[in-house]
Amino acid sequence: MTRVFNFSPGPATLPESVLRQAADEMMDWHGSGMSVMEMSHRGKEFMGIHAETEGNLRELMGIPGNYKVLFMQGGAIGENAIVPMNLIRSGGSADYVNTGEWSKKSIKEAKSYGKVNIAASGEAGNFVSIPKQSQWKLDPKASYVHICSNETIGGVEYHWTPDTGEVPLVADMSSNILSRPIDVSRYGLIYAGAQKNMGPSGLTVVIVRDDLLGHALPITPSAFNYQTQAENDSMYNTPPTYAIYIAGLVCKHVKERGGLKAMEEHNRAKADVLYDYLDASAFFSNPVAREDRSLMNVPFKLKDEGQDDAFLKGAQARGMIQLKGHRSVGGMRASIYNAMPIEGIRALVQYMKEFEAQHG
Ligand SMILES: *Cc1c(COP(=O)(O)O)cnc(C)c1O
Fold first, then answer.
1. Ligand 1, closest atom to CA 76?
2. What is the DSSP code (8-state) at residue 168?
């Protein structure tokens, strides 16, 4: 068996020990005589898995008791509509901060459900930095303020938590959830597709403060109504059971590694190796302002884009895949989530050095 270093932005690399355990338990989970995939979501076995996954996630992130954890479907793109349907209120408005491609998608979608104000935007600067909070134009009457905490494509990340006063802060954390400790109590709602840092695709985690439930627009489908899902323990419809199980194994694994503080140190050490090389190189470059650089997604360019294909081919030959940048920005991107070992970064940087020596 050969495993590659998979730099995919998502679905992304998972911890090997989690995959092994899932393989071991595939045919017969804990003597139940069935695979988790075959279990009734209302049976005692799966109810136990579900509760344990939620418990581990709560413990890892320090989620306060007045927040519900919902396991939903539809991905973060689905949530771009589900959030305003549930929170914006009839005739209401919301503030959005535009920091790149994923914020833009959230903004576009929200406009179907209410008034959207762009409180700040990094667009004029080509999204290489996060607008400072002093430049934000927040509306104290807004139903919520929306941010994308890590722009998976542009590679900018908030390393601070915005202060939105009484207005609930909503964050799309798809690509940096579980990568470091955060203070959940500073947020009204957090949502994340699982397939970057938490597990397989198909599961969307929503962490929502109690008082934000119960205000959904009448058009909201029942399965996407947070209150309905909260009242039914995320089982109003059949939840993505297998994805919840794997996310539970990932949470347990992260706990065993020392929790989110340890993940942050690990992620910072990895990112430093790559950014330090990028900054020293005359051939490769990263455009993002230092203080806003993502620890999860590192876009970079070659001096001569005519050599992009050769670079990718050479990487593939060395067992490093999915380094091609998003089509909207070109170049390269290394996604280095929790499960990417530092050996993967060292192998990448070693290859980049060799490539630079040959082609620079
Ligand atoms: C990947 C990603 C999404 C899209 O998630 P889907 O599961 O495809 O809906 C949205 N926002 C961010 C920040 C992402 O990284």
1. 9
2. P
* Torsion angle of C-alpha atoms 43, 48, 53, 59, degrees rounded to 10: 150
Q: Kindly give the interhelix angle for 342-359 and 259-280, rounded to the nearest 10 degrees.
A: 10
Q: Which of 68, 95, 104, 172 is catalytic?
A: 172
Distance (angstroms) between ligand 1 centre and the Cα of 334 equals: 16
Given 68, 95, 104, 196, which residue is catalytic? Answer: 196
* Residue 31 CA to ligand 1 centre (angstroms): 36
Q: Where in the chain is the domain with CATH 3.40.640.10?
A: 17-256
What dotted CATH number matches 17-256?
3.40.640.10
Ligand 1 atom closest to Cα of 78?
A: 9
- Whether residue 172 has its Cβ less than 6 Å from ligand 1: yes
pLDDT tens digits in sequence order for the chain, 360 residues long? 799 999 999 999 999 999 999 999 999 999 999 999 999 999 999 999 999 999 999 999 999 999 999 999 999 999 999 999 999 999 999 999 999 999 999 999 999 999 999 999 999 999 999 999 999 999 999 999 999 999 999 999 999 999 999 999 999 999 999 999 999 999 999 999 999 999 999 999 999 999 999 999 999 999 999 999 999 999 999 999 999 999 999 999 999 999 999 999 999 999 999 999 999 999 999 999 999 999 999 999 999 999 999 999 999 999 999 999 999 889 999 999 999 999 999 999 999 999 999 998
Ligand 1 neighbour 240 (Cβ under 6 A) = no
Residue 213 CA to ligand 1 centre (angstroms): 23
Is 196 annotated as catalytic?
yes
Distance CA(89)–CA(69), nearest Å, equals 21
* Nearest in space to 185 (alpha carbons), one of 208, 205, 201: 208
CATH number among 3.40.50.880, 1.20.58.340, 3.40.50.10960, 3.90.1150.10, domain 259-359: 3.90.1150.10
Q: How far apart are the first and last CA of the chain?
A: 35
Whether 76 is in the pocket of ligand 1, judged by its Cβ within 6 Å, is: yes
Burial 307-317 (b: 16+ CB within 10 A, else e): bbeebbebbee
Q: How far is the CA of 8 from the centre of ligand 1 (A)?
A: 13
